[in-house]
Structures
1.
Amino acid sequence: DQQVKQNSPSLSVQEGRISILNCDYTNSMFDYFLWYKKYPAEGPTFLISISSIKDKNEDGRFTVFLNKSAKHLSLHIVPSQPGDSAVYFCAAANTGNQFYFGTGTSLTVIP
Amino acid sequence: GAGVSQSPSNKVTEKGKDVELRCDPISGHTALYWYRQSLGQGLEFLIYFQGNSAPDKSGLPSDRFSAERTGGSVSTLTIQRTQQEDSAVYLCASSQRAGGLGELFFGEGSRLTVL
């Protein structure tokens, strides 16, 4: 039973444009959400997080939006750069417990 | 070291053999997680240790899988009588605290291939 879902397995975006990666979750008890980036043959690396008391968190070119009523979060990358090409995983947790990950979205930024 | 260290980085074994995968978490991190990523799949939770509490083993796919964490630090994931479907990248992660408000730091993974 997948509690965190990323319905788009892949996304292609032109360099300089906005990349929007989406994630849905089913467990209303989740109160902390994260995005990870993964290059081939490397472990995932932390990108940005948001707690459930916020609806937006921004860090440079990366912004995460949280819509609790829709149980939906999204990651916006603007402007997109070729080096952003990677697999992006969203994750959710209920404080004190394990993290649940989505299946990932492979982003390709076309120069 | 500064990061999460996993060994071996690659392991090829024959079906039916036992394997052990090791994880050295970041010093001082109380939470340790094992995930695996099969080809074309997402990150599948396996097991989670938090301090001296009983581990959350709810993600282990069968009783052939077990893990321990000695002294609250190093962890070993053991797969007995390996099967071809066990082939995956096994990722270890640690965190200063469990769940919310603590990001996970991942190792580079151990790639297991069962022939």
2.
Amino acid sequence: QKEVEQDPGPLSVPEGAIVSLNCTYSNSAFQYFMWYRQYSRKGPELLMYTYSSGNKEDGRFTAQVDKSSKYISLFIRDSQPSDSATYLCAMSVRQTGANNLFFGTGTRLTVIP
Amino acid sequence: NAGVTQTPKFRVLKTGQSMTLLCAQDMNHEYMYWYRQDPGMGLRLIHYSVGEGTTAKGEVPDGYNVSRLKKQNFLLGLESAAPSQTSVYFCASSYGGGGEQYFGPGTRLTVT
């Protein structure tokens, strides 16, 4: 069993829809939870970062963490064609001097105009 | 401010050949990382460095070596390339060793 599980999709939605992306994890030692966005043939870029259970909002994006259920979500409101990308969840645990990241496999999202 | 850059962008190797991938960052970050990304496997950590002159193994270190002789550079070496090392390689850096990592554009490597 992988430490981080993510539905690979693909997910296709019309412009303006609310998108829900999810990950589950098995390691209760994970302390920090992130969402990265990766456009085709580019490197991932950090979208959201949180370290506690609950919700964190940034513009059209909301990250939700439920540590008791080992479940994290990313919601995108009023989705735009420019949101079309692969979304990677990531979680970190302290290992030999660094908080190393464990990534999900990514969910590919397409927003149709 | 270029951020994180990687050289080369593409490379094709024959089995048994060697090569070095170069990562450079201009953000004065202490921590640097090398990942590989494969379909269905996600990003996996190969090696990382918590400062100049230090290196440590990640999740999938076999077949790779690294060096961090200068703070701004992190080199990934393949001594004897194998087809299983065909992948996209990403370098990343971070200031404080937390989750906020900045990624380079990637190197696409094919080993035939």
